[in-house]
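Handout, page 2. Input:
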Amino acid sequence: MAMASEQASFLGETGQLVRAVGRAMGVTFKNLLRRPITVRYPTVKRVYPDRFRGILALTYDPQTGEENCIGCRLCEYICPPQVIKVEMLKAEKRNFAKTFTLELYACEFCELCVQVCPTDAIIMMKSFDLATADRRELLLDKDRLHALGLQFDPSWATGNRLRDMQAPPKPAKAAAAPAAEATVPAQSPPDRRAPAAGAAAPAHNSPDRRAPEASAGAPTANTE
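Output:
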């Protein structure tokens, strides 16, 4: 009895092994003639989508060449992991960021800092390859963030675009049509029923177009 039970257990385990190998080889043979889905990174890179959330960078004004950041610290206040630190430099015409540091190794890439930026100073780039063995290299200062903004292609998302996309529709346009309908007075349909027998026809307030009688004198013009 013990020998028979051991033999049955061995056959059962062998069957499970054969079925597992068969399933694995089935997946291999099914994808044998398909095109590969991997690329030879970093020599070959995929085209990133427009809404790609990559590394963060700071931008310049293309017309004046000045920094777009005004040091308002909104990105610092809204950052969930608190990886952004900004120090404002006040000036006569506008404010600047005296210091701007970002701990990229702790960033969540939530894009909240991009959404609240009033001047589109901080954006996300279409890149992610900043792997390094030294953690201090991922502590980005203002100069490094500006250099990244010039090195890689920017993502589509900016603060103004995201706010316009997420804002509710303006009530003025939505209420224009009901207001126009309210100004038009309601008109009752004309009574097209036939008049009753013996009833007089309704009088029409139409002008008297009959010729004047012969006895009626013509109006004389005042020649004086």
